[in-house]
Each structure stands twice: as C-alpha cells, then as structure tokens.
Design a protein that fits this description.
5-stranded mixed beta sheet; Fumarylacetoacetate hydrolase, domain 2; alpha+beta; single chain; 6-stranded mixed β-barrel; globular; about 30% strand
Amino acid sequence: MSETASIWITNGMHVFADVEVLAATHPGMSGQPPGAYSGFVDPACFVGSAAIAAERPDDQLFDEAEWCLTFPDGMDGYLSHPERVGPSTPVTVQGFIEGKWVNRFLPGMDRYVPPSAGNNVLAEGAGIATTIGAIDAGEAIGQVEISYPLAGGRGTRTQIMPLPELKGRNVLGLVRDVLRFSRDHGERIDGIDLGAVGDRATVLNEPSRFLDAARDLSIPVPPPAEAFPRIAKHAIEGILAEGIGCPPEEPMRIVTRGKGEKEVGEGVLVWHAPSTT
C-alpha cells in the first residue's frame, strides 16, 4: 500500500449538498454564468499507487485527469497566512487521478463525497515547477494522461488534461480560499487539487453528453442552472449503460509530462470488485 496525503478535492460544476462552498469563482460551463468553487478534504489520497475495493455490486470506476498543487517550501507558512500567496508564488504541480464511482451520483445528484472519496491517486515524481501566475495565464506547460483498457478488448480509454486548460480559471483565488478554509477549520492539507477542466479531462466534461441529455429532456440549451441535476442524471445513466468505466483488476495508469514530453510523474490505480460470498 502506498503512502497517503490529505488533499483538497475541487469541484467546479454543480454545488452539491455535502461540499464546502468557497468565495472564489470560476468561468461557467456551456454559456452559464460564473460559478463558485467548492469541494472537500480527502484525508487519505494515495501517492504513487493504490489498490482499492468497491463496496457496491453496481460500482463503476471512472477517472478524471487533474492537477494537484503543492508549495516547494512547504504548506505551513501559507496555511497560517493565505494572503502571502500571490501570482509570483512558486508552486509545484503534479498529475492527479480523481477517481469517480460515477454510479454513486444517482439517484438524486445531491452528494459529491461518496463518488469522490477514497479513490484518488497523486502521481509520484518531480512534477512541474511553476508559479500561480503562470498557471492562471496559461503559460505553464505540461499534460496529464490517464488510460486504461476497456472490457471485452474494446481498446483503451484515455483522459487528458493539458496544463494550459487552467488559463483564466482563477487558480489564485481558489488556492487562497482553500488555505483559509484549512486554517479556519483546522483541516490539515498537503496539496490542492485544481479540478477537471477541458473536454478531454473526464467523460463527465464531454459537451455532447450534456447537450444530448438536455435535448432528450426537452430542456433549452444553454440550460438553466436548476436543470443541472436532471440533465446530469440522464447523462450519467447513459455513461453507465455504455460500460466504459475501468474494469476491475485492470490498471488505471497516470503519466505526467512536462516540457519536451519529459515524464515527471507516474502512478497506477487498481480496483477490486466486492466479494459475492
């Protein structure tokens, strides 16, 4: 079993009932107005590798290709003084598997933690040295790739998140607010996950899925915010029916690449189906 780290998990879509809502905002999706960042602390994210067990017979594990931010000089000084963080603050970013038991979003689309906790892996390696300002400006270079074989020999599924996708996402505001939350609530964190951004980062970000779901339900596009749970539920039911999650016992591999495609991080996640005895 690998070591673990306590990491803030960022949600940048719908605000669920079981997350902490921050003041920092991010650009909206699909014509929506800016939304509030939210999330929770997963105190036991795996580092490098992990083997986990499903709890439910209907569990299907998916991945989100994301980035995790840490400070090369340690978290302590920033946890006690979030105002010290600015555009020129040096940071290190590393690839992150944000696991998702996608079936656990159903039936009500009102809980984020059950699908998202206990199934996350931080890649192991040097990562990418940059600054918060460079990330916000889209000047930091790198890419996270996560892949796994599909069941039945149907090929390989790959999720990708280039680091420039975080351009204009208000990473500075997110980081400051997470540090304030940690300080005010006594929640120790070792890193800050920056969320899944871009069409290729996760199956849940593929625009056609939500647009098709909205049309199926005769909801206008762009849809009103209050329609999100209905649309997401319909889209997730379709995703689960496709059977494109990572099969049990198969490796979900993550590779982080920096400038010149240099490999600066790697990891693997495997899950086991629950026992039927």
